[in-house]
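Risk register update: the risk of archive-format incompatibility is retired. Evidence:
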Amino acid sequence: MDLATLIGMVFGTIVIFLAIITGGDFSTFVNVPGLLVVLGGTIASTLIKFSLSDCLFALKLGIKQAFVDESADPRELVEQIKSMANKARKDGLLALEDEDFTNVFLKKGIQLCVDGQQPEFVQKILAAEMENSIQRMQLGSRIYTAIGDAAPAFGMIGTLVGLVQMLANMSDPSSIGPSMAVALLTTLYGALLANLIALPIADKLGLRYQYDRKTKTLIIEGVLGIAQGESPHVIDEVLTTYLTESGGGDPEPAAEGAA
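Archived output:
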């Protein structure tokens, strides 16, 4: 569970709710037609830009990546790869077949080595899978960004529609204030949808795929080192360069040869 996302959304919702109820009646901020304009317009705009299957995939991916942190610890990966390299040099690559893996990508790379594939082929397969995974998350980020761009725009459209309706009924001055309040609610809905949900999730996906690229590049380097029979010390020297000096939680940018 990614507590940062949960805390951020809950805290933001509570702050907005408190601001509403302390300043007036909550029902004043409920306007179904305005909400339909924002949601319906945003959905329509997003479907025009992307395919239905991509949108459904992105929604599922965004929710998963926002609330579930499946990122591997790079330092733990380095230690595991060093241990496997030492075992492979002593007992051969086949000894790694029964290794207990916590990372699926690492498991696939080692399995390719155990199956006797050449290092060049292993690198090609892993690099292709890495790029496919990153492209999926990039697509998800683009779709959530599109939602974040469309929601405020349709909020403004709803406001303009409400203002036109208000100006068309100027014969009753007492209705101008309430009508203006209702018109402005669509702008509020669009801003909330964009800035509390869509754009933060888009940014979260952006961070996820950058981290995913760096971590998987580290794994590719480690797997290739094992396949080529390099010593654990050499592998450690290579992989350590991917860790930051501040604590190793985020590898440095990928080497060009492994990307």
